[in-house]
Amino acid sequence: MLSLSQAQAAIAAGQTRAAVLGVSVNIAVLDAAAHLKAFGRMDEAVLGSIDVALGKARTAALFGITSEAVWDYCKPGAPAPGLERSNGGLMTFPGGVPLRDPEGRLLGAVGVSGGSPVQDADIAQAAAAAV
Amino acid sequence: MLSLSQAQAAIAAGQTRAAVLGVSVNIAVLDAAAHLKAFGRMDEAVLGSIDVALGKARTAALFGITSEAVWDYCKPGAPAPGLERSNGGLMTFPGGVPLRDPEGRLLGAVGVSGGSPVQDADIAQAAAAAV
Amino acid sequence: MLSLSQAQAAIAAGQTRAAVLGVSVNIAVLDAAAHLKAFGRMDEAVLGSIDVALGKARTAALFGITSEAVWDYCKPGAPAPGLERSNGGLMTFPGGVPLRDPEGRLLGAVGVSGGSPVQDADIAQAAAAAV
Amino acid sequence: MLSLSQAQAAIAAGQTRAAVLGVSVNIAVLDAAAHLKAFGRMDEAVLGSIDVALGKARTAALFGITSEAVWDYCKPGAPAPGLERSNGGLMTFPGGVPLRDPEGRLLGAVGVSGGSPVQDADIAQAAAAAV
Description:
Structural class of chain A: alpha+beta
CATH architecture of chain A: 2-Layer Sandwich
Oligomer: homotetramer
Number of domains of chain A: 1
Number of helices of chain A: 4
Radius of gyration of chain A: 13 Å
Low-confidence stretches of chain A: none
Protein name (chains A, B, C, D): Glycolate utilization protein
Shape of chain A: globular
Number of strands of chain A: 4
CATH topology of chain A: Beta-Lactamase
Order of helices and strands of chain A: HEEHHEEH
InterPro entries (chains A, B, C, D): GlcG_carb_metab_protein, PduO/GlcC-like, PduO/GlcC-like_sf
Largest interface: A-B, 18 and 21 residues
Pfam family, one (chains A, B, C, D): HbpS-like
CATH class of chain A: Alpha Beta
Strand content of chain A: 15-25%
Helix content of chain A: 40-55%
CATH superfamily of chain A: Haem-degrading domain
Mean pLDDT of chain A: 97
């Protein structure tokens, strides 16, 4: 089960990485059942990305894969067109990463938004590595 | 009219088929008016597929055709672009199958999610055959 | 963690009790994070009570107490007026019961609707006792 | 303008106070426009109180008064019956406190849920005092 200290460590590591990249982001951490555990919005992060960060984390938690891996199932020509409309709308671009314990069990997910998708994914990986 | 025992038989048959395929799925059965009749989530089924199973069943019940047949109406180049956004959002990939009585009257629909779309459709057909 | 067989046993026990009482009900079983695990609607159960059964189970799962115990917090004169509007709307009358393992850990909740509140609570208790 | 470091200080102070009281709570901090700034759920906090903490903070931020002061406007016999249904539903019991700078300008609000309303308000005041 994801602890608050793990969630806070993930957010701190993500914010450190974001500062290195020079971007201001929102970082959301959800538990394995997609309930909010911790959240932080860096100063200057754009407001519209609050919901995107939450959505990326929710997407990664609900399916246990990265947010962009969900897109591989539903992008044009893929076998699950429309999957992105499930669960109230998924966020299907980089920045959502599942969190797993050493045995591979799902602990939750982190979602990052505010930079470019490439930056967001970089920051999310840094956050996940701290758990 | 779809009975509870029919719905339960559909779910049991679907779960048996899923076990043969080695996947854990959610199976939803709705009546002909798209109201929930019965549901079962197999242990280990991914949480994100609960809503997908319900959505596939709802799509099949509302239009009386399989979920992927709805996609044929709204996919790129088809005559009804945007149909997938009706009814609060349809699930337009395999796994939703209408249930009909021996005279062909619509009884409801079953929706399966948790495996690949091909597996989900296979399981849904097994479930439908038990009604 | 609540298993499918436990959830099915709860629904079967509830349906048996409902038959003894001579009422047709909806029975919903959610896991400890309030995600749907299993559901059954008895033939003749009123459609409006599908959502009520789900809502009672969700209320009991989210707060770990019976649905009517939530009402004790928010009824007129109680210390938490408006709590019932949280979480998209709670169902605060009898019929929602938390499920716990022998050590007292929350496993999920069962929600019953279709009879009188007294009958619903009776059936929910019978369902919970089977877990 | 509320900074992330102020929001984090509020949450840390609230968590410290909650530990003294022996309760596990959710603490939400919103900015003056009611957008999420930071959030933390203590281990063991009840899931249903995530939304309540967010709702109390939103209520306090939107009106610039405590969540229970909003109730004074809409409780039975008060001049604004139904106000509690505005803004998607307000949380109108103790635990939401506005945050102000030394000149009295609104910076945002903190919302706490998980203990009794009296405990939640105590924790929220401790959190607000740290800003």
